[in-house]
Amino acid sequence: MQVQLSFQASPYTEVFVALGGNSALDGKSVHEALNESISLLDSGEMTLRSRSRMYSTPCFPAGAGPDFVNAAAVFRTSLPPEAVLCRLHEVESVFGRERKVRWSERTLDLDLLGYGDAVAPDEPTFRRWADLPLERQTREAPDRLILPHPRMQDRAFVLVPMAEIAPDWRHPVFGLTVAEMAAAIPAEERAQIAPL
Fold first, then answer.
1. What is the rounded average pLDDT for all residues in the chain?
2. Per-residue pLDDT at 146 exceeds 90
3. Residues 115-126, mean pLDDT to the nearest whole number
4. Quick one: pLDDT at residue 1?
5. Which InterPro entries match (predicted)?
6. CATH for 13-195?
7. Burial of 27 (0-12, 13-18, 19+ CB in 10 A)
8. Which of 73, 124, 153, 171 has the fewest other C-beta atoms within 10 Å?
9. From CA 3, how far away is CA 46, in angstroms rounded?
10. CA–CA distances in Å: residue 78 to residues 11, 14, 84, 111, 170
11. Would you call 112 helix, strand, or coil by DSSP?
């Protein structure tokens, strides 16, 4: 599957990754899994530029399992977006991630939030997924890579850690910085995201 991007390619691109988990695996805590996953990603064609602290966040949706540990990281890479996503899925599989039920308990969740200023496959497709009502989000998932992540602007557990490391990154569709998107989240939701 080929994705067409609406940006000028350069040798290196900054990619933004959300990390999370709420289930231990083989005696490894979620903290250990997140730290090890960053180390695995920081190799070869991906170089870690910055990472946030870890945060305790309420499980989403409520009642789907234990609370999460979340973080964000910025990598520099020459890989195309599809290869970055493939690499994230490879690292998830090392930690036993299985994609059986949407928004279920998970040992490791790695989401590609943004790839420079790329919009993929195009803005209308991005907007369709960004505007998808919550009740449909539980049943429907894209069959291709959507960039930026179509739900990042709605999620305090993504924006709070990301604002720590990339507050000035500007959303290529909405034109808002991470700091501005985080500030738009209700204060009571942001307050639930606690540094560990």
1. 88
2. yes
3. 96
4. 47
5. Hppk, Hppk_sf
6. 3.30.70.560
7. exposed
8. 124
9. 20
10. 6, 9, 9, 18, 20
11. strand
Give me the percent of the chain exceeding a pLDDT of 90: 68
The confidence score (pLDDT) of residue 127 equals 95
* CA distances in angstroms from 161 to 69, 107, 131, 157, 164, listed in the order given: 11, 19, 23, 7, 5
User: CA 109 to CA 56: how far, in whole Å?
Assistant: 14
Q: Which tokens in the block code for residue 38?
A: 């960053």
The H-or-E segment that residue 13 falls in is: strand 13-21
For 89-100, the pLDDT digits (tens) are 999 998 886 655
The vertex-110 CA angle with 134 and 89, nearest 5°, equals: 110
- What are the residue ranges spanned by the domains of the chain? 13-195
Strands in 78-144 per DSSP E: 109-115
Q: Which helix (H) or strand (E) holds 89?
A: helix 81-94
Dihedral (CA of 110, 72, 75, 175) sign: positive
pLDDT at 173: 97
In angstroms, the Cα distances linking 184 to 101, 130, 178, 187 are 30, 16, 10, 8
